From TrEMBL:
Keywords: Cytoplasm. It comes from Microcaecilia unicolor. This is Alpha-catulin isoform X2. The gene is CTNNAL1. Its main location: cytoplasm. SUPFAM superfamilies: alpha-catenin/vinculin-like (SSF47220). It is found in: Cytoplasm.
Length: 746
């Protein structure tokens, strides 16, 4: 395990089985809990490791003060969650409360010590600050890390909860608080300048985000079917992948391998050819800077890797023969180059002669031809494979077989999916060889790992459904894993396009952030907008709102699941609105069926209309209630009407220009979030009243059935059907916190 950033201050870590220990006596024995603390540790380390300069600028002082305040606020929010959970779990209350008190005291101490004011205040005024008492910050940091760890360790006990409703309810409530906590702790991470590290971080975040979508359904399936081995394997697979992604994030942040091993850079053909050509062309400047043996060895390594292509069962015979022919020709050209080169050395020539120049050009031309052939072979294979699997026939067949409880058919299609997985893994390896840049090479490896892991997870989810064909949650679980597979295939198409862009020299500037606003026509009088580049603050704001929207869809879906009458109008409208909010969340990530800002605005308008229709249904429901029960519901109905009307006005308002469009997008998502917050409050109120007044439920008619497509985007005001997929995972709290932290940190 990497040494903790605070190890110099008494917080130490080691790779031993005991983990790292804190001065308060609490010993962290699991790597995952330790990883949860990494962001907060880094934030505190910023305070402890600041440079003691004689001259302190206003900028330095303000930065220290902001970090101290951020830590205190993060702790405050964390405590709020801890206290709430303590109140709901009496057996944990005393221990949790003590830990929260310690954390609060430590957070306030850090805030006080970092309240350094401005340069105008003399350091001799008697105030104790971080500059006059650094050991105070160290002590407070130790105390904070210890108490936060106690809170996390205590929360781990929640994993043992056996009640399904209690399990979902606690984590649904906890998730909203953790979004804010993730932002505050995530602020400690500076922007990575290394493109390779950025690519690794992007891959790890992609894993974490997709895993959060899988974890709730996998965990709920395990709870619903505790004796099902395939369900257990399915859930454990998600946890394992998240742990691996978290370890990668920690390695990037700390720049240290967790297992202490030195990272071995993967060898690809494009890097080998690039280095080989550099050495060959370097002979023009210096005939004596390398040996002929080293140049020959470099080519041998390149040709050895071309065997990945020639040995592949998916490479055509003609392509294989052409690669072998070019490989042989390149060896011949190198031999001729070496002969001319040695002759020039014997003549002690200082300037490149015509024969040597010609030999250099022929060798470089030949190796370029080989690179071009390999690139063509890999990209054609990927293109053909993506076309072949575009209809997702195997996934559809697995779903049908699972619902029918046909284990034999599931086994048959599981074999076909395994074959498909092997094909995709193989082409990812070939594509890595011709990726053209290190970041794209890392993305290829990420794609390979994703197919390698997701394939068996789909199979285990299908087996679970086949064993429990009437299980709604098992069906949703399989759909979520299939969606992850389909998403990775879409990502492969994008990756292929980027690799082709690099190869053909079309890749110039870094890509613009396309998610918001999206290029497209925003009204009849406007021209198509170019992609808009958002700064870090704007991207962070949009990501935060999008993730909050995702969490709220989870809350609403959890509430609607409680209703016995799934055909109730309240439930149907709630599910439809959750589906629309989910499509808007996908838009913030540049995914889904909403492609332009105009699509988003139209969706927001339909969503607002659905909110007003639900308000009418709720009013009808309230008329069936006794006077004592009405006030609370009527207050929430008024809020729903108000928020829906505001969103409707915003969505219809015409805008023009980059900044106004972005502002409108931001406002639409913000107001949609507001409507979803009210919806998440009103549903449990209606549920309680509906159970209390079953006789007054005649107004809840269900003219339409609930469709089974979660990603269906509503584009017609009368078509308000969609499907509900749970959002944030029901999981160990430590993974929940760590996932959100690393997912949201910018």
């Amino acid at each position: 395990m990497a040494t903790s950033p605070c190890s110099s201050s008494g917080v130490s870590s080691s790779s031993s089985s005991s983990g790292f220990s804190l001065d308060s006596g609490l010993e962290i024995k699991t790597r995952s809990v330790e990883q949860t603390l990494v962001p907060l540790v880094s934030q505190i380390t910023t305070l402890i490791n600041h440079k003691d300069k004689l001259k302190k600028s206003d900028k330095t002082l303000q930065a220290i003060q902001r970090v101290g305040q951020a830590v205190n606020q993060a702790v405050g929010r964390f405590i709020t969650v801890g206290e709430a959970i303590a109140n709901e779990n009496r057996e944990l209350k005393e221990e949790m409360s003590m830990a929260c008190i310690e954390a609060k005291r430590a957070g306030e101490t850090i805030a006080k010590l970092t309240d350094v004011g401005s340069l105008d205040q003399p350091e001799s005024d008697g105030r104790v600050t971080i500059f006059t008492d650094k050991t105070g910050v160290v002590k407070a940091a130790r105390m904070l890390l210890s108490s936060v760890t106690k809170v996390l360790s205590t929360m781990e006990q929640l994993e043992k909860i056996g009640s399904f409703q209690e399990f979902v309810q606690i984590f649904s409530q906890f998730g909203n608080e953790m979004v804010e906590f993730a932002h505050l702790t995530g602020d400690r991470q500076n922007d990575l300048k290394d493109e390779k590290k950025k690519a690794k971080m992007a891959a790890a975040r992609a894993v974490l985000e997709k895993c959060t979508m899988m974890l709730l359904t996998a965990s709920k399936t395990c709870l619903r079917h505790p004796d099902c081995e395939s369900a257990r394997i399915n859930k454990e697979g998600v946890f394992h992948r998240m742990r691996m992604a978290l370890e990668q994030v920690v390695e990037i942040v700390t720049d240290v391998r967790l297992n202490g091993e030195v990272e071995v850079a993967p060898v690809s053909i494009y890097t080998g050819i690039k280095e080989f050509k550099s050495k060959v062309e370097g002979l023009r400047e210096n005939l004596y800077f390398l040996s002929k043996e080293s140049l020959s060895l470099m080519l041998e390594l390149i040709l050895e890797h071309t065997e990945d292509f020639t040995d592949s069962a998916y490479t055509s015979h003609e392509c294989r023969e052409h690669i072998l022919e070019l490989s042989k020709q390149t060896k011949t050209e190198l031999e001729q180059l070496v002969a001319v080169w040695m002759q020039a050395q014997n003549q002690k020539t200082k300037v490149t002669n015509e024969d040597l120049e010609l030999a250099i050009l022929k060798t470089c031309q030949c190796i370029d031809e080989l690179k071009k052939e390999l690139h063509s072979a890999a990209t054609v294979l990927v293109t053909d494979l993506l076309k072949c699997h575009a209809d997702h026939i195997v996934l559809k067949a697995l779903k049908i077989a699972g619902v029918e409880g046909n284990l034999e058919a599931v086994a048959e299609y599981a074999c076909k999916l395994s074959e498909q997985k092997e094909q995709l893994v193989e082409v990812c390896r070939l594509l890595r060889h011709v990726s053209g840049t290190e970041p794209l090479e890392i993305t290829c490896m990420h794609a390979e790992d994703t197919f390698q892991v997701t394939g068996p997870q789909i199979i285990s989810a299908a087996e679970t459904l086949a064993l429990h064909p009437s299980s709604k949650i098992a069906k949703e679980n399989l759909a979520v894993f299939c969606e992850a597979w389909e998403s990775q295939l879409s990502d492969m198409a994008i990756l292929l396009r980027e690799i082709n862009d690099v190869f053909e020299g079309r890749r110039g500037e870094k890509r613009a952030y396309l998610s918001l606003p999206r290029p497209g026509k925003h009204n009849a009088s406007l021209k198509t907008l170019k992609p808009v580049k958002l700064d870090g603050e704007e991207q962070g704001k949009i990501a935060k709102l999008g993730l909050e929207l995702r969490l709220l869809t989870s809350d609403v879906d959890s509430e609607t699941e409680k209703w016995e009458d799934q055909e109730s109008e309240i439930v149907r409208h709630g599910q439809s609105m959750s589906s629309m909010a989910y499509s808007m969340y996908l838009f913030t990530r540049g995914e889904g069926l909403l492609k332009t800002t105009q699509d988003l605005f139209h969706q927001a308008e339909v969503f607002a209309t659905a909110g007003l229709k639900l308000s009418a249904v709720l009013h009808a429901f309230s008329n069936q209630l006794e006077d004592d029960d009405k006030p609370l519901l009527l207050v929430e109905i008024d809020k729903l009407i108000s928020m829906s009307q505001q969103l409707q006005i915003t969505a219809k308002a015409p805008v023009q220009g980059k900044i106004p469009i972005f502002t409108k997008v931001d406002t639409c998502i913000l107001k949609t979030r507001g409507v979803m917050i009210v919806l998440a409050r009103v549903l449990p109120v209606c549920y309680r009243l509906q159970r209390k007044h079953k006789a007054g439920n005649g107004c809840l008619r269900s003219p339409r059935t609930w469709k089974a497509n979660r990603l269906q985007t509503v584009t017609n005001e009368d078509n308000l059907d969609g499907k509900s997929v749970e959002a944030f995972g029901v999981k160990s709290l430590e993974h929940h916190v760590a996932n959100l932290t690393f997912l949201e940190s910018k």
